[in-house]
Amino acid sequence: MGRLIVIEGLDGAGKRTLAAGLTERIRQGGGTVAHAAFPRYSADVHAELVAEALHGGHGDLGESVHGMAVLYALDRRDAAEALRADLAAHDVVLLDRYVASNAAYGAARLHQGADGEFVRWVRELEIERFAVPRPDLQLLLRVPADVAASRAEHRERTETRRRDNFESDSSLQQRCGAVYEGLAEIGWWSPWRVIDGAERPDYAELAAEITG
């Protein structure tokens, strides 16, 4: 059985770059790697609705913290079987965002912390009720909110990808970063490791830790 590794962090933190570096290093060591990114905008109807709501579609759906969180959760529930198959077939499965993203962003929108009611609700829904696969390790890319925002703006310009309502809300991003820190501090759901996203990580060290 492979190891499920989740990369979490603010928009623009460098999650894709970290995933690419880890993948290269693990494969150099002879390991196999599978990837997934949430939300799965092009693969799941719940994620499609999320994308549309984040850009103003579906009336006031985007304003409903719990409504949006349910759509995110259903996307992962739908992906659970495929994740288990990937874990059976590969040494490592790398995820760009997972359940903690739902907890962090929803709590931040409600001005709650990692110990608040919303995080408990997400745990009850996704972990206890939907029973999605548990990560072996969650990696939090820590970057200042203004640095992450600058990177996201650059990505928007160079990749012609318009930022959604959450990505362009600097205050929300700051609060979300604080919730992430709280989740990592308490080891929410599984072990966490915090990585300085402003510096180039030691891919060899991380890959060795991930593969055991």
UniProtKB/TrEMBL annotation:
Keywords: ATP-binding, Kinase, Nucleotide biosynthesis, Nucleotide-binding, Transferase. Residues 7-173 form the Thymidylate kinase-like domain. Its EC number is 2.7.4.9. One of its GO terms (biological process) is dTTP biosynthetic process. GO terms for molecular function: ATP binding; dTMP kinase activity. It catalyses: dTMP + ATP = dTDP + ADP. One of its GO terms (cellular component) is cytosol. Gene3D superfamilies: P-loop containing nucleotide triphosphate hydrolases (3.40.50.300). CDD domains: TMPK. It is an enzyme of class 2 (transferase). InterPro entries: P-loop_NTPase (IPR027417), Thymidylate_kin-like_dom (IPR039430), Thymidylate_kinase (IPR018094). Pfam families: Thymidylate_kin (PF02223). HAMAP family: Thymidylate_kinase. PANTHER family: THYMIDYLATE KINASE, UMP-CMP KINASE 2, MITOCHONDRIAL. Phosphorylation of dTMP to form dTDP in both de novo and salvage pathways of dTTP synthesis. Belongs to the thymidylate kinase family. This is Thymidylate kinase. It comes from Saccharopolyspora gloriosae. The lineage of its organism: Bacteria, Bacillati, Actinomycetota, Actinomycetes, Pseudonocardiales.
